[in-house]
Task: inverse folding
């Protein structure tokens, strides 16, 4: 059973388009995250949600809008895609945000903007 | 954000122990030391974490200096499957759970 799953695995699109990446966790965790890994392999937190509420927004442009319909899902919608949005996006989850519990990462979604 | 310093790369031979160092001289009293690794084309994977005392689990051991300004991740017997980028992260308690990744150490394992 996949603990944290993301769809799609690959996404190729044109500049200016709007796209969504979906994330689901079946671990019963309260907290979910989105991370971005750029071409230099640098991983950076984007958002964190706890019980469907936003708790971290790391100065991400407004074009990025996370949506959490329930605790098990955290989707990422990106408007007006730009070349610089090309990256691998990882979803993660943990039991809670305040503790020191491990985070479980998904397999990643490779987004390529042409 | 609290910073860590790691060597960019290290090499090891299969079946030998590996010691991956990390410096975190600006660590504060509530910062936990976490290690994650990222295998090629995969998401990061939790390895181990600790606060003050040395820690062991099925994957690795974590040795923390007495002043907590440095730590070492120990893989007791490296396998080819351990080739990955290893990240040493200071995680601040009650800061929303975010992980601040540095550049990590790319470990290659030779047969």
Result:
């Amino acid at each position: 059973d996949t603990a944290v799953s993301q769809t799609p695995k690959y996404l190729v699109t044109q500049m200016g388009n709007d796209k969504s990446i979906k994330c689901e966790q079946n671990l019963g965790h309260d907290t979910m995250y989105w991370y971005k890994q750029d071409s230099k392999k640098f991983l950076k937190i984007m958002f964190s949600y706890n019980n469907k509420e936003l708790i971290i927004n790391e100065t991400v442009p407004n074009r990025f809008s996370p949506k959490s319909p329930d605790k098990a899902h955290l989707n990422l919608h990106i408007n007006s895609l730009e070349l610089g949005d090309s990256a691998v996006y990882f979803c993660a989850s943990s039991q809670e945000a305040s503790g020191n519990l491990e985070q479980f990462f998904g397999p990643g979604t490779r987004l390529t903007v042409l | 954000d609290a910073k860590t310093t790691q060597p960019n790369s290290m090499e090891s031979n299969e079946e030998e122990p590996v010691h991956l160092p990390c410096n975190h001289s600006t660590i504060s009293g509530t910062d936990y030391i976490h290690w994650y690794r990222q295998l090629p084309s995969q998401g990061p994977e939790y390895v181990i974490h600790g606060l003050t005392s040395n820690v062991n689990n099925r994957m690795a051991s974590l040795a923390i200096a007495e002043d907590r300004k440095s730590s070492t991740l120990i893989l007791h017997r490296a396998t080819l499957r351990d080739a990955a980028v290893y990240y040493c992260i200071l995680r601040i308690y009650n800061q929303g759970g975010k992980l601040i990744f540095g550049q990590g150490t790319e470990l290659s394992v030779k047969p």
